[in-house]
Give the backbone structure.
Amino acid sequence: MENETILKKTPSQLKIMVLNAQDLFLFMDKHDQTSLEDLTEIKWNLMSSSLINNKSKEKCLSLALAIKDSGADIVMMTEVGGHESLANFARFVLNDEYTSLSLPSNSDRGIDLGYLIKKNLPYELALRSHIDYPLPGPAWRFSRDVLRLDLLKDQKIEMIFLLVHIKSKLDLRKSDFEGRTRRVLEIKGLLEIYKDLQSHQVPILIGGDFNGHAGEKDTEEEFKSIYTETDLKDIAYLAKIPEEERFSYIYFTRGGNRFVQQIDYLFISEKYAHLINPDECCFPRYKNSAGLPLPIPRRMEQKSLLPSDHYPFLATLKR
């Protein structure tokens, strides 16, 4: 899809982006008011007193360009290095055009969830965490969170967002093969929350990094309950984005074989499918900070040049 198409926006539309920002740590506690343009990569990192390096300036600018080019009103972000990092990204890289909202999660890597909301949106905002939500099984909680955002007008809920980052298939402790038990339980817990919220009779959007194939075709086992127990549908599927374009992640095996996958999703009830503008739903591809397209990786070394190892997904809904 051409950028000119993406940028068309009327007041009756809401643009929503799902984005795994890959370790977005950005600490600026030593910032001396030097303009962003005058900061070299070395000086960029010297703005932080943290032991964790800042995400590179070039990659932050490239992420910001993807957001700006899309015209996104709401960005549902995973792998955010806490509220301070997200607030700094909004202030220093996105020209303070977005409100940043984030809460601590259960992540043992400090990669939390967060929202960026365009400041000109005519809504009140309410944020709620589910870090203490008991999963239906062993004494576990979500490995990150289900971070809920309500859009309200006159104290009445108009739309609900549930942001997730499902447990990966890594099993470093060798206690749960491919994390299958926890992954199944996290999806069960997510769907329980969704079902409880349906009584509000408003659109509920579930988005984020599912760390696996949750699409309607060739669905991985842990995600099948999405389709058997709820009316949720993948917006990319409903928008009829061609399968060859429907990917957010590129995986290379140790032997160098390349696979494309969609593991980042935005779901909505099928009864609200009429709200989708299919012509303005896509997986935007990255550019560098100068605005030149970055190649879709064919080799592993090209992947490291991207600002994130995930591509975003953009959906446009009628208000």
User: Anything to note?
Assistant: The chain has one domain: 14-318. The domain at 14-318 is CATH 3.60.10.10 (Deoxyribonuclease I; Chain A). The CA atoms of residues 173 and 179 lie 10 Å apart.
